[in-house]
Structures are given as structure tokens and as C-alpha cells.
């Protein structure tokens, strides 16, 4: 996500079932012990967002087929969700905000559904055994909602950002950090459960529909155009996007990597450099952070002045207007830090934003602008325009859900990395970053994993550094390291 600060308020397979789904046996061939299936949990236990995500299963793949009519802001859709049960399930939840569920099946049998706020409770005809792969199909429609993130402020300046499904002047966009994806598709909406995606969108011509990954097909029939996008690499649901509107498309290649940039004609004059800049940023970041994790790169440059942030949507960052160089670097850096290496819980958001912010400092340093040390000093001294509020709380311990995108997570997170770089030296520092993106490629991680890696690679304890900069309230002593 961009620095325009967002403010948020939302919130062993041997045990089988005493039921018709019981089909297995132990490796010895003896009948398995039976256990009672139970409902999956309504959340994954995230300390900041306890209701986000759901327990009892792990999604492998989402196949979303969407038809969108901008005139009525109407979405008609089918979600096919392939998952594996991590417990014997009598029922399970999906996160879904608004919209009407018309039909639901599990393994092709009609399933019962109940709505409880943003929880869609699905009860299959037959229980799902632990370890069993199962396919859920949800048919749904309606006018998808924009989620207003607000800290309860009423004045314009203090109002939070918006996410979910948002109408633009010529279409709409779906953006989902941290909760908004539930406004346009049902799923396990927590970053601890990543999955592959195929997203197919049908829109009235001449509008276009841009999403993550690779465009497999574009077909047109009866005034409607259908775009089939495929993202085989795991993706956290908050990084999924759909942008519908009038776009000029640029398809180029950089080092064999397809570069797909969609630009709203209203931003064209200011965005001419974006295709080459995205290529340059992707190649530069690969030299610093390791192999690029995905099969394509690109950007969506929309014209959406009412939005006040950009988002690192996977392979295709979304910009609400033509971005400057540093913002492109920031969102491209997120492809490694956030999209490929994803925090297992939202309190570790600094693993995204601290790293993406520090990428900006590194870029500026290499462009003969301010050195990272000078930027650090400006933050420390409070002279940097983004330094306001950075001491409000320690970056690895946001106190409330509406603070996961606050200044400490960005600025002080980046300062932590700079202190680490000074303590271990450049060679070890960049080796740590490349090892981090390699060891957790397409996976999940937490702060403790990063600290362990830093200790291992440097041979230093680094206790005081991480304690002071990541966890301890107040402004740390500058003397260290
Ligand atoms: Zn960011």
C-alpha cells in the first residue's frame, strides 16, 4: 500500500468420520478411529482481526467468474473454491460482505447457507473428512459495497480510506487490504491462507477488465467482452484485484518477463513513462531482493481522484493516478515483500510496509538523491514529511486494527531495516534480504522468522536492536548500533 496513510476500522489424515464421507483406513488397513465432525472456526485468530479468515480448511484455488454491468453497478458471479479440510467439518465459514447468495454446493451436492454479518456459514449435505479435498461453488449477485474504513472521525481530513468495491468515473475497481476482498467474492480472507486464482470477468464493450497475472483469453460476443486472467502462484486475497474501465493497454517485455500496463486515458500524459519505469523497477528490485517471484509484472494506472492510496495488487499494482518513481518502486518491492513473502498475521504488516518503504530509500540513494542515512536522519529528527506519528507505537506491535497502516509501520519499520544494515554491513544485509525472499518464496512468515534469519546470517544476537526498534514503545536511542 502507498504511504498515503490508510485508516482502518474493520475491522495426519488417518482420523476419519463416522459418516457417509468415511472412506479411508490406516496404513495398516485397519479401520480408522472415528471422530465427530465439528464446525470450522469463524476466524483464524488474528490478534487484530479475529473474525477475518476461517478455520478448518486451507484453500488451494479460487476460480471466480464475474459479470459486471457498470450502469447498475451490478455484479453476477460464481466462485469455485477448492480447499482441503484441516479438520472434520460439519460446516465451515466463508467471509462475504453484502451481496446475495443464490445457490451453494459442496462436492456437487446442494449445501445450506446462513448469513451472520460478514460470515457465510456453509453446511454441506455430507460432512467433509479431515484431509479431504472439497469443492465449494457459490453463486451470488448484487451491488457490491464499498467498505468505509473510519476511525469514527467526522471531519474530512481524519476520515479513513475506502476499500472493497468502488465505482470510478468509467467503471469500478476491487481492492482488498485488509478486508475489502470479501466485498466482491466469498473466501478465506486472511493472508495466512494464500491460493492460486483464475479470474474471468465479462464487461460491456468497449470497457476492459484488468486483473492479476496473465491474460489467457479475450473473447467478445453480443456487445460483451470476456477476459480470462490466471495467477497460478499463491496470492493473499487482499492482493487480488479487478479494474473495469476505459484503458489503454501496453504489452511489452523486460528480460523475458511480460509487462502489462493498463492506463486510463485521463492519466495518459502523466503516465507515459510507467511501462518503462515498471520494467526498470522490477529489474532493479530483482538485483537487490532476489529472483522476481511471478510470471508477469505491470501496473494499472486508473483515474480515481477520490481514492488516496495505491495498492500492491499482485503482479499489477493499482495506482489511483499516475504515480511518481518512488511509489512505483514501493509497490513493485511489495511483489517480494507482502505478495510472495506474506505476513501470517496483520500485526506483522511492517514486513510489508517497512521493507517497501526501505526500498524507496535504497532507490533514492542509488539515484544520487538522499542517502538512506540522510533519509533515516530526516525521519529521526522529524523533518521528513512522512515522519509525523512514527513514534506512536512500535512497528511490530500495532495496538489496534485501525492502526495497521499507520506511520510507525512504514517509517519506523524502514528505520529498523536501516539500523540492521548498519549493524551487519551491506554485504550481510542484502544477503539477508535475498535469503528471506528465497526461503519464504510464495509462503508466509512472521517477525520472529526474520529476526532468527538476521541472527543466523550475521552471527550477532541483535536483541537490543530489534527490541528497541520493533517492540519497545517510545523513540529509540539513536546511538545503536
Ligand atoms: Zn505499501
Protein described:
The chain is α+β, with helices and mostly antiparallel strands. 22% of the residues lie in helices and 30% in strands. The chain has eight helices and 25 strands. An eight-stranded mixed sheet has the order 8-7-11-5-4-15-18-17, with no helix packed on it. The chain has a five-stranded antiparallel sheet with strand order 12-13-14-19-16, with no helix packed on it. Helix 3 packs across helix 5, helix 5 crosses helix 6 and helix 5 (407-424) runs antiparallel to helix 8. Mean pLDDT is 92; it is low at 5-34 and 152-158. The structure holds zinc ion (ZN). Zinc ion binds next to helix 3.
Summarize this structure as a short list of keywords or feature phrases.
single chain; 481 residues; alpha+beta; Immunoglobulin-like; Zincin-like; Neutral Protease, domain 2; 3 domains; 8-stranded mixed beta sheet; 5-stranded antiparallel beta sheet; 22% helix; binds zinc ion
